[in-house]
Amino acid sequence: MTESRPYTILDLLTDQSESTQRQLLASVEKKCNGETKSNTTVLSSALAESGPLSSYRTVVSQSVVDGIFKTKCRLDEAGTTDFLVVTTRIMKKYWEAVCFLMFSHVHNWSVLGVDVRDQSTIIVPPDLTQVETSIKNYLMSLDGSGKVEIIRSRIIPCDMFNAGFHTRQGGISQLPPLASMNMLHTIRKPDPLIVIAENRRRLAVAADFDLDLLNVARTEHGKKVWVMGRDPEPPLKYDGVITDVPGVVVAAPGADCCVILLADTRTGACGAVHAGWMGTVAMAARETLRAMVDNYGTDPRHVHAAIGPSVGGQCFDMPISDAQVITDLDPSLTWPSERKEGWVHTNLPGANAVILQNEGVPKENIDLTTALCTACNKNMFFSHRRDSIPFGNQLGFISCRKR
Ligand SMILES: [Zn+2]
């Protein structure tokens, strides 16, 4: 078994003096020790058509941030996660700051700062406090893939609430299963927080809400609810979030799981809840609605609800015993799976509609037309069932415009 070496990224961008470049290249070649050079990408300001660099993969760029973003995207697609950046000692801290922001938990990275002799030009290391801003500005300047698309429910009055679901279009996440509007940073996705923040910024612009007032549920497939205003700090994990403050945006992520938006048309209180099969069985939607009743005086008869894009019953099955609670709600919500003995197809959006109706929300106030199947509509939505890991997440969001 050969020992796996990290993938090398050679920085020939930040010090372009010939002497420095020669020394950095020598240090990489020494490490390669005659092995294939396919394990190295050179960041350079110009394509090397001849000379010692010509046998390396080169990413041509005029900026480190652009160079590392392009390199990372290519290597993410190849599934490469271990990186070693080779640069000069004076640029080491800068590179560490860049890598910290641009890589995620799936990546293992380190920076080697090589001592170079006879530096012919004086290199002033970039201001580290500016690294984050320069990356943000760069990501902001990228063309999104397509246009941000927002699906709005006709049942939630739009003069009173700003509510909707978005599709996977319009963001900057590059890895195909996350492309392009991935809204969630997790330990299994190569999207760093700063990319998620840019995707969320684009949603805020398109949907016309204040990004600083966006609160996305930190889901755990349970039924805990963060009552904003009552609990100053959110629980560590929670699937429902509610508010009665105009302008505050509450949201929940999904990729097959239902995201349900609740709008109290009398008080302006609103909520968002994430319910996959576990959250549906745990009655997360009921808990969220009850939290609105208990804390904001909501009357379920005035609640309008939209159930967002989620996996349709024809594309989703689960063990018959796990689905019993749902079958008990209404036997037509489950039916035998032809794929697996002892499993049943389960209509999760329908189940959540029944859960809300049982709490007193009128049937005609519940919008299921927004519950498009995530698994069937590959160009529109992320789907865990369809894409396996990693997969992207879309959001459902709601805020009250006025009371
Ligand atoms: Zn489907």
Automatic annotation (TrEMBL):
UniProt key word Cell membrane: no
Keyword Transmembrane attached: no
Organism domain of life: Eukaryota
Keyword terms: Hydrolase, Metal-binding, Transferase, Zinc
Reactions accelerated catalytically: adenosine + H2O + H(+) = inosine + NH4(+); inosine + phosphate = alpha-D-ribose 1-phosphate + hypoxanthine; adenosine + phosphate = alpha-D-ribose 1-phosphate + adenine; S-methyl-5'-thioadenosine + phosphate = 5-(methylsulfanyl)-alpha-D-ribose 1-phosphate + adenine
CDD domains documented for this protein: YfiH
Record-linked InterPro entries: Cu_polyphenol_OxRdtase, Cu_polyphenol_OxRdtase_sf, Cytotoxic_necrot_fac-like_cat
UniProt xrefs under Gene3D superfamilies: CNF1/YfiH-like putative cysteine hydrolases
Family, similarity comment: Belongs to the purine nucleoside phosphorylase YfiH/LACC1 family.
Protein name: Purine nucleoside phosphorylase LACC1
Protein's organism: Aplysia californica (California sea hare)
